Amino acid sequence: MSFPTTPAPVFASVPEVGQLDLHPAKPPILHAPAHVAGDAAAWAAEHRPTLRGLVTEHGALLVRGLGLSDTGQVGAVFHRLAPELMTDKEAFAPRGTYAPGVYSSTVWPANQPMCMHHELSYTHRPPGLLLLACLTAPATGGATALADASSVLEALPPELVQRFEQEGWLLTRTYNDDIGASWAEAFGTDDRGAVEDYCRANAIEFAWQPDGGLRTRQRRHAVVRHPVTGRRCWFNQIAFLNEWTLAPEVREYLIEVYGPDALPFNTRFGGGDAIGEDVIELINTVYADHTVREPWQAGDLMLVDNVRTAHSREPFEPPREVLVALTEPQHPTP
Predict the structure, then answer these.
(1) Coiled-coil segments, which residues (predicted)?
(2) Contacts of 26 (CB under 8 A, 6+ apart)
């Protein structure tokens, strides 16, 4: 993200759109004019090119002052910003569906953080843009924090980056009905043949288990080039979906129940070697060093360049209602 290096915020007026607040510790915040709350969808449609331009320039944009208050209004804004919304496939945990392409945030324990990652970066065609809207802000915590993927890449040890560039990264999953999304939820069907066809078309190795479960393996690029700017980005979920990111007691429980080779999800080097706890700790530390955040306020809208910008969800005190849409599918290239 293009944040000023000075400690004080910088304000800029964006003609006919609002005032842009650039603060080094926060995502760019666009304060929309007061009258916009009356018709946020029309305003989003009119200023879509400007909003998308700001996202390309800064990596993300938080829009404040739209007064988003219900799911129908949010859906209308999402569709004005991105007419073609993606169907969520291969989710690691369930989501609620409000309307086609409009989802709840991932169902995940409120007291457990979701560390930095790029949404669905393990899929064959991940979204290039995320749209988020807050209807209910948590009493404490719960920010969708952000980190610039190019800056993270530059801060990681060159030898580690080189290995991941050469090998890629491997995601292994064991779908069951107890932890995370079941295979029927993840693939949107209970037809085994359809799941197999999807896996073959998306470079996913699969094996059905005697108990009816499913195990998959998929190798993906760890570093890709941004489709517009060409900048190299650390684009993956290596740390997020690794066993060492889990709370120790959760990791121990899962290993005890499922065994070390049948965890609901885990990541490895692309060649199959295990990734050590030290590597995962290093990646998460670099993310933390490059994190910016702004607490949600009810009515907020956020646009996130999913290739350039990683995001997380911090622990919170419920309730928290954030709607999500995925759009602009990409073909990531190294």
Answers:
(1) none
(2) 9, 62, 292, 293, 294
Length of the chain: 334
Residue 76 lies in a domain: yes
Q: Whole-structure pTM over 0.85, yes or no? A: yes
pLDDT digits (tens, 9 = 90+) for 242-278: 999 998 998 999 999 999 999 999 999 999 999 999 9
Tens of pLDDT, residues 277-310: 999 999 999 999 999 999 999 999 999 999 999 9
Number of CB atoms found within 10 A of residue 307's CB: 27
Do 241 and 301 lie in one domain? The reply is no
Q: Do the Cβ atoms of 320 and 142 come closer than 8 Å?
A: yes
* Domain tally, the chain: 2
Q: Which domain holds residue 252?
A: 151-286
Token duo for residue 183:
């295979």
Amino acid at 297: Q
Give SS3 for 265.
strand
Q: Enumerate the β-bridge partners of residue 22.
A: 10
Residue 228 lies in a domain: yes
The encoded tokens of residue 301 equal: 């809208």
The pLDDT value recorded for residue 8 is 62
d(CA 63, CA 303): 8
CA-nearest of 35, 119, 43 to 76 is 43
